[in-house]
Amino acid sequence: MKVAMPLFGNWISPRFGFSPEMWILTIEKGEVVSQERISMDGLALPQWFNRLSSLGVDTVICGGIDGFCHRQLENLGISVIPEIAGEANEALSLFLDGKLQPGFRAYKRGGRERKRKGMFFRPPWMEGERKNS
Amino acid sequence: MRADKGASFFNIILDSVADGVFTINDQDEITSFNRAAEEITGFSRDEAIGQYCFNIFRASICQTHCALRQTLKTGKAIINLPVNILNKRGKEIPVSISTSVLKNEKGEVIGAVETFRDLSVVEELKKEISRQYSLEDIVSKNHQIQEIFHILPDIAESDSTVLIQGPSGSGKELFARAIHNLSHRKSHPYVKVNCGALPDTLLESELFGYVKGAFTDARRDKPGRFTLAEGGAIFLDEIGDMSPALQVKILRVLQEREYEPLGGTTPMKANVRIITATNRNLSDLVKTGSFREDLFYRLNVVKIELPPLSKRREDIPLLMENFIHKFNLKKEKDIVGVSDATMEFLMRYDFPGNVRELENIIEHAFVLCKDKIIEVKHLPPELIRGLREREIPPKPTMSHPLKNAEAELIRRTLEKRHGNRMATARELRINRSTLWRKIKKYGL
Fold it and tell me: For a surface tag, which of A15, B56, B108, B190 has the fewest beta carbons within 10 Å of its beta carbon?
């Protein structure tokens, strides 16, 4: 399967559609078999969707995403894990462990960042559900 | 104790301000977040404090031209910069931001402050006036619209003439605007002309302009819409209503890229992309001779066919949500949605006026609805009557149920065929004289 993460440096871009770079990963049997960073600089939104579609991306892990973009991705058959904040590498390991959920903070363990790990905030569609510890 | 009192007084002041205010330290972490900031962004103070500002504010400039970083770097304040942010619910909010550095008593920089004002209402009104719609205004899940959406960038880049065909109110202008906004001409003008709204002579002078002395009142040169659109795009709406004489002139612009203003003798060059739209079927008009075949082929380089709303019913809930949001802003109401009965009702309606009709229905409901949910009773009465009449079968009386049903069927078919007996008889597959006899019998 192919996973895409819009990047802001080594972080997950806080907002889909505004990042200059995208991290594309091919994952087989729970392991990353290939990866590349592609430039998204200057692309208009439809070109973003066309590129993701032509790359055969199955899942997008991203930060904030508006309803319009979310719908477009779903219409292309791409599943979205939205509202992720933090480091891209950490988000990837959480994803590979099957622990990444919408609204997660992905920070490295240890030091000041430890207390940050876990649920970043409860996205509106998860409100009312049991809070993830 | 005094410091605590000071801090709490400071928070009270901040919370009474209508603009959103937040502060960051030198690590980009949010250190304070007032009540208006909570309302505009949707994030609570607890969620925001301690987070990196870009993860909460999520402005269009965060990743490229962060205003706070710029202020911290240069020490200069930024005033009223228009940007848009993404709130917690995933909705874009237009805001204007101002930033300034924060210094301690010693004059050392300890962070920065950002204030922001919600411009949703202003922007919505501006959009209404200028009709400057963006790509995000195309709201659809429909596969046909999705296909168009995905080829839109290629169409935009091609610079070819585009013909958009679709029924009234299906969003032709939205697509024309989107094509222009995605093209390399986007920084140049986009000029719209409705060819069906003006008489022939006026339309010609509107399109091509005139020179001084061209006619009695022409006291000075007037540039036409083609001149105004130079370098950009001209959108010719209702092109199917254009007269044959003007069609020739448009053909010349397309073939030779030049035109002459009314009364002028020197041809002017036209570096303009032409986007056209019509609610009529141009190939049918060509067959009947009311539209030039050569012009049709020139216009029909790239054709976009928009489906009527009745063929994209899956979009009705999405569109309704959009219109409710828009009218909440415009009319300062807080309607949250429609009742199940209203939704069911509208999902079965045919919308001959397409998306525009749906918009008008929601606007009508906004006038009548005093609660938070739009009920069926808030919809236009003729709509409710029409749909109910169509659905409720004729009430059979116990004495002659079959006869009553027959009379009702004839009455409705006559109504549908606008009283045309020939057409009614044909539809009912009965002889014209039989129909006449039955009309007389039932007193229709």
Answer: B108
